[in-house]
Structures are given as C-alpha cells and as structure tokens.
Amino acid sequence: MTKRTAAKYKIDRRMGENIWGRPKSPLNRREYGPGQHGQRRKGKLSDFGIQLRAKQKLKGYYGDLTEKQFRRIYADAERVKGDTGENLIGLLERRLDAVVYRAKFVPTVFAARQFVNHGHVEVNGKKVNIPSYRVKEGDVISVRDKSKQLAIVLEAVQLPERDVPDYMEVDHAKLTATFVRAPSLADVPYPVVMEPNLVVEFYAKN
Q1: Which CATH number, 3.30.200.20, 3.30.460.10, 3.10.290.10, 3.40.50.880, labels domain 95-186?
Q2: Predicted confidence band at 151 (pLDDT cuts at 50, 70, 90)?
Q3: Which residue has the higher pLDDT, 56 or 26?
Q4: What does the UniProt keyword field contain (predicted)?
C-alpha cells in the first residue's frame, strides 16, 4: 500500500485550491499554505513552477500517487495513439480506486484505496485488492456482499456533493458499477481545473 506522506488537506492548502471540492477543506477557512511560512506573499511562478504545480495537483487528486507510479502511467499514456494529456486522464480514471471513488461507494479517493486494499471490491465477480488495477471497458465493479452494510458505504452513496459521471453506469441499490468507456478530460467532474497539457510539457522538458 502506498504510504501517504502528506495529510490530504495539506495538499489542498499547498495547491491553494480545494482540489476534491470537499466541504471540510481548510481552504474554506484559510486560503494560505500550510506551515509557519504559509502566509508569506507568494511570488510569481515560473513556467517550470506552473508545470510542476499542474503535475502535483493531478498526482494529489488521485490519492497523492508516488512519482514512480505517476511516471509509469504517463509513460503508458505516451505509448498510446492520440493526445498524451487526454490519454493520461483516461488511464488515471481507469484505476480501480478511482472507479470506486467515482461510483460513490466511498467518500474520498484515499478511502477508495484503502477499501480496495482491504478486499471489499470485486471486478467481474473476482476479488481484486490492487488499487492501481486498470479496469477495461465493460468491466463490472461491485462491493462484495459481506461489505455492503459497512457504514462508510451507506454514508457515501447518500453524499450530495458528487455526481456519478456518464462514462459509468452505477446501481447504488446493488452497489455495482459498469465502466462504460475511458473518459476525456472534458468528461471528468474535477472540482478544479486540471491541466494535463502542462504535465506533458513538464515531462517533455525534465
């Protein structure tokens, strides 16, 4: 299991944006960064700084992925025909933990990773406990029968703050989700602007 080295809300404050759109984000109270120097006036970012921030924001959104994990996904996106930035988004959204989060089976992407890790999820009827597992079009993702009454699941499906995107078909009564297709950037309901084109520029230069 990937170790999360930063508290999730510190990511919000470091980026200066409520990247998950959560009501509990400290940015709703304090817009400055974390730590004792957080209130210093920020200088203008260089092109490198802008590209780095775009990469850190995208990495952070998907549960603060490690650089090794993220770079591997980026390399796969480069190998596929088409726009690398769009491919990157499509591959990130095909991660099993991202699909569980999008289906609203759990409240946060961090909870989704733990939920998968603990063996609560099946893909096409078989238990899968690897958060980075890449789902395919037509795959059916479901909460295991013994896990359907967990409080975290019952609470998550009632959350009003997120809608299920149209590249997934979800039945909350049965707690199943079908991954219909890999989305483009415009399809993904990010609460903030994501700029995968800047991520592509970052890796092209570094």
Answers
A1: 3.10.290.10
A2: very high
A3: 56
A4: Ribonucleoprotein, Ribosomal protein, RNA-binding, rRNA-binding
